[in-house]
User: Fold Peptidase S1 and S6, chymotrypsin/Hap from Anaeromyxobacter dehalogenans.
Amino acid sequence: MVRSRRSSSRSAVRGAGRALALAAALAAGVAAPAAARPPAALPRADERASANRRTPVVIAVEKVRGAVVNVSAEELVRIRVPSQPRGGTMGDLLFGDLFERPRYRKGYATTSLGSGVIVSPDGYVLTNNHVVERGARFRVGLLDGRELMAKVVGTDPSSDLAVLKLDTREKLPYVTTGRSDDLLIGETVIAIGNPFGLAHTVTTGVVSAVHRNFKAGERTMFDFIQTDASINPGNSGGPLLDIDGRLVGVNTAILGDRSAGIGFAIPIDRARRIAEDLIAHGEVREGYLGISVDDLPRKDGSVDGGSGGVRVTGVDPGSPGERAGVRSGDRVEAVDGTPPGSAAELLFRLRDLPIGRAARLDLSRRGARVQATVTAVELTPQRAAELVQQRVGLRVSEERVSGGTLVVVRSVAGRSPAAQAGLQPGDLVREVNSAEVSSVAGFQRAAARARRGGRLVLLVQRGYAAERIAFDFD
Assistant:
């Protein structure tokens, strides 16, 4: 009995010791054996940072992304205000709007969404004219989520470019402009924009072609950068960048299906020159040479849409063209070494010449080769009025009426385009290319702007009737 009690005592002591040891082990952080975990289905992820991921594209995007903005154009509209039921009856609720005079309030509706790029630290934004042309006010979204109001500094419909100014005094990130005259076919380019409202979308591609001409409806567009970087609705006005993050183009258009991979951008060399004019003068100053041209008949077997050559059909007296020795009847073989594809292309290239810059014309005159160097001068409003008289056959004057002045047709040259359109002395000219005019000075300025597009559209009023009449204004 005594031996059994001692044995029980020793067993109790050993059990207590094991319990204390287990408690100590748990207190020391040694876990008790657990059920075995199943092996992982996939190898362990490699979470180490890799320098290979920071490609030149990534570095370029990080450098300029903060300067790309979303542009929302809002149009002033009238919004009908629902009638308030007077008696609260079911009849008032159902038929109140039918028997009461409708009430309206002013409001804003978004008419277009596009992109833009900040090109200076003080907040100038370069974008497309078609993004802002219908807007009354503009909101610009930044990368950090803020929205700033902006005003239009100037627009140029003929080049489809516009400049906005952000309403802020802070210094903003901006994109440095590069060059487009030395772009390489096949070099990498980056497009950033707001396609389908998806802000700051980045796509990449290559330069597919330079100096590309293409048809947009009835209009031929000249001298674009072609790229296969994805450009979609909403990308308009966004930047096309080179691999160093420099601005080389302004994304503008796509051809055919959205998935065709054919996009176009305005070269930055032209866009910068136009933007500087818009910022400095509020409009683009067009160079004037005083040369009229037309297409020669196409030769058999020539490419469709091509020309049989370009011939000078007129030289304005006292113009830079006359001073350079250009004569009517000369055939234009090349401009600065490049043959023109058509008269329209030649006119585009001559009008794109900055004021004070010279162009070398290679001419053919009665079988002999002749060179002429023509320097562009500014087309003044007074000279634009003279061109209207020469090309359209129209002279205008100013007439005072109660409350202001009106622009009145003073004379119409016989057999001129204006005479063939039926214009008569005494007709009122209300608008020039959709811009209201009420003075001769305003008419002249509007005519100078219209010549960049090669078309003069007049809103003419006779009595209570009004009609828009278009004239070629090359």
About this structure: The longest strand covers residues 103-118.
